[in-house]
Write a structure and sequence with these properties.
Length: about 130
């Protein structure tokens, strides 16, 4: 299975060579600030299953030592994925950048204890006050 994705401007394209992991909505303040929205939607995959097929030189990193490093397009600003130094074999791909249709639904919400007060969670997915 190969899943394709890209940034908003199309300067970066990538492929995921595996099935997606569980879909998670993260409501922490850092994810809200980085996305400009109520949460970030991502899935964990093995780093070895991710391949940039176009525009590797356009990918920039927001280095956040001891926390989550975020990778984005230097031209349009699209967040592509994030990684933690403590789990170098795992990455979290931003599902909004997928080009292919998927039928998987959200599995859980994390950091709902700090979610935006103006957003109501209306689905039946599991909710965690912090990261499980």
């Amino acid at each position: 299975m190969t899943i394709h994705g890209s940034c908003l401007c199309g300067e970066i394209e990538y492929q995921i060579h595996d099935q997606l992991g569980p879909i998670i909505f993260c409501h922490c303040q850092r994810c809200r600030k980085s996305s400009g929205s109520a949460f970030v939607t991502s899935t964990e995959i093995l780093r070895s299953n991710f391949e940039v097929t176009k525009g590797q030189d356009r990918i920039k990193k927001f280095d956040n030592p001891g926390k989550v490093d975020r990778f984005f397009c230097s031209h349009c600003g699209s967040q592509l994925y994030s990684q933690r130094a403590t789990t170098p074999l795992i990455m979290r791909v931003r599902l909004g950048t997928l080009d292919d249709t998927i039928d998987t639904k959200v599995s859980s919400h994390i950091y709902v204890g700090s979610k935006a007060e103006w957003y109501d969670i209306l689905d039946d997915a599991t909710q965690h006050q912090e990261r499980p």
